[in-house]
Each structure stands twice: as structure tokens, then as C-alpha cells.
Amino acid sequence: MPRGSKDKYTDKQKRKAEHIEESYESRGVSTDEAQARAWATVNKQSGGGEKKGGSGQKKSPQAKSASRKSSARRAVATKHGVPRPDQSLESMTKAELLNRARTRHIPGRSTMRKQELINALRHAA
């Protein structure tokens, strides 16, 4: 028999455990073992019973959505090499400099060295 009270579990979790337990019993597993496996499965899938209080973030669905959107925008900007406004040209990689030169349509950029790209970008500004 599994240890602990199941009062903190939702009705859906209890139904799921019961269904899993019946499935194990139909395959010949003992009742106690089937019950233990069922609750272990429910715990693994849903993280246990209802969580009330405790630590962690308490964000509204709107705040979570806004966080995801801004995070996605930052990730895309980073992925595509969009430089940060406060970043100096010297601290940028050659690939980032090439991307910036490409957006400014600097001719001959593909054959330039890093310092040449920096100089060309400064003159184009």
C-alpha cells in the first residue's frame, strides 16, 4: 500500500491512478504493487498532489505571456546577430561586424579583415 494521504491530489489525478492500477492488475501485477506503480506514474507525470503556497513565481497568465514574448524577441535578436546599442565595434565578433556591414550595404565587406570592417562601419555612420 502506498504511503501518505492522497487528499492533496486532484480528482483527475486520482482517476488516472485508478485507471493505471486497473491496467497493471489486468496484467497480473499484485494489488499493492499495481497501486504503488500507479501513484509513482501519476507523481512522475504531474509532480504529485496539488501545490498550495510555497515558493516560486506567482505570475498571471498575461504576465507569463508578456515575459515569453519579450524573451522570444531577445532570443531572435541574439540569434541573428543584432548588436546591442551599447556594444562597441571592437568588442563585436567578425560575424557580427559582417552582419552590420551587410545591413549598411558596404561594398567589399566579404573580403575585409576585422579592423577594415570596423573602419568601414565608422565611415558609413
- Tally of extended strands? 0
Percent range of helical residues: 55-70%
Cα shape: elongated
Question: Residue-averaged pLDDT, rounded?
Answer: 83
Biased composition (Basic and acidic residues): 1-25
Region (Disordered): 1-125
Domain Rho termination factor-like N-terminal: 88-125
Protein name: Rho termination factor N-terminal domain-containing protein
Which labels suit this protein?
single chain, 125 residues, mainly alpha, Rho termination factor N-terminal domain-containing protein
Overview of this protein structure:
Residues 88-125 form the Rho termination factor-like N-terminal domain. InterPro entries: Rho-like_N (IPR011112), Rho_N_sf (IPR036269). This is Rho termination factor N-terminal domain-containing protein. Pfam families: Rho_N (PF07498). Residues 1-125 are annotated as: Disordered. There is one protein chain. Helices cover 58% and strands 0% of the residues. The protein has 125 residues and is an all-alpha fold. Among the domains are: 11-46, no CATH class; 80-125, no CATH class. It is elongated and about 80 Å long. The relative contact order is 0.08. The model has no long low-confidence stretch (mean pLDDT 83).
